[in-house]
Amino acid sequence: MQDKIQQITEGFEAEISAVKDLKMLEELRLQYLSKKGLVSVLLEEFKQLPVDQKKELGQVVNKMKNQIQDRFNSVKTELEESGSVTDEFIDLSLPGRKKNIGTKHILTQTLDEIKDIFRVLGFSVQEGPELESDYYNFEALNFAPDHPARDMQDTFFVNEKFVLRTHTSPVQIRLMEEKKPPIRAIMPGKVYRNEAVSAKSYCLFHQVEGLYIDTDVTFAELKGMLISFVKQFFGEDTPYRFRKSFFPFTEPSAEMDIWWQPSGKEGRWMEILGCGMVDPNVLKNVGIDPEIYSGYAFGMGVERTAMRKYGIDDIRVFFDNDKRFLVQF
Ligand code: PHE
């Protein structure tokens, strides 16, 4: 019997060393470990032995059985983990499958870029609600109830008291009510205007508001900061100019243009932002003493800025969600 045990052990070892895949392993299992396999038959024979021989051989038989089972199990896991490569044919010359990874919307990318530039210039980022009361959207910003400047903003009225904000300037008010100067922040967000939709205007767009309040803030600082922004965003050699303008909440006020030269077309000046020194009335409305503090504010349209930078001539494409447009960025 001992000879037999040795034979089986050695035979099994020789065969399992030659096993290359799960199919061969299964054949080996049938041959050794199944009900009629060599190991099971030997165990049957062992059971028939007289008691004294059983005692003598018990350990050896057990050891053989366990050894074969363990070896079988470990080869099995090994083959399963390696995916039993020889079973299936893999054509390594096939091209890979391309994964379609989305990108950030061009407006988000533009906004990120604007935020990064202002962050370095020392501005934090603040946000405010899109549904605003008449007070924040107009009154606190020095639009008198019958002020003709209200006509500048084609407003969506939700009811008598509330509007969809027509600009991000109300966030200035909220911020100045909350914090004491010095304040230096930009305020990005969506704004709404009740205008006829065309290539040039849409009922919804994005603005970035900027505000700096401290002692002795000057118009020269405002200009210097905006010029620095334009150079970083549009390029060092971008021609720019300031024109005087009017906003109820700034005095004096200006608009900034940059020279736009679309390829193959005539170049022209294009407005990119409004700006000015915060009107003393606005400071009074939020309880900041205009005798001590002064400040500047500016507001730019994100769509317009992106349109100038990337040569896009229709604002509606930002909102159509047409993949042919979106994948270009
Ligand atoms: N809120 C103005 C607009 O929507 C832009 C602006 C902001 C102008 C801040 C001056 C200062 O047109």
List the helices and strands and how they pair.
Layout: H1 2-17, H2 22-32, H3 38-48, H4 51-81, H5 106-120, E1 124-125, E2 131-133, H6 134-137, E3 162-164, H7 169-178, E4 183-192, E5 204-214, H8 219-234, E6 240-247, E7 250-260, E8 268-278, H9 280-285, E9 294-301, H10 302-310, H11 317-320, H12 323-326
Parallel strand pairs: 1-4
Antiparallel strand pairs: 2-3, 4-5, 5-9, 6-7, 7-8, 8-9
Helix pairs in contact: 1-4, 3-4, 5-10
Short descriptors:
BirA Bifunctional Protein, domain 2; two-stranded antiparallel sheet; elongated; alpha+beta; 329 residues; 12 helices; 42% helix; binds phenylalanine
Structure explained in plain terms:
By secondary structure, this protein is an alpha+beta fold. The chain has two domains: 2-81, no CATH class; 106-326, 2-Layer Sandwich (BirA Bifunctional Protein, domain 2). Helix content is 42%, strand content 20%. The strands form two sheets. A seven-stranded mixed β-sheet has the order 1-4-5-9-8-7-6, sandwiched between helices. A two-stranded antiparallel ribbon has the order 2-3. A hairpin with a 2-residue loop joins strand 6 (240-247) and strand 7 (250-260). Helix 3 packs antiparallel against helix 4 (51-81) and helix 5 (106-120) packs across helix 10 (302-310). It starts with a helix and ends with a helix. The mean pLDDT is 91. The structure holds phenylalanine. Phenylalanine binds at residues 167, 169, 209, 247, 250, 274-276, 297-299.
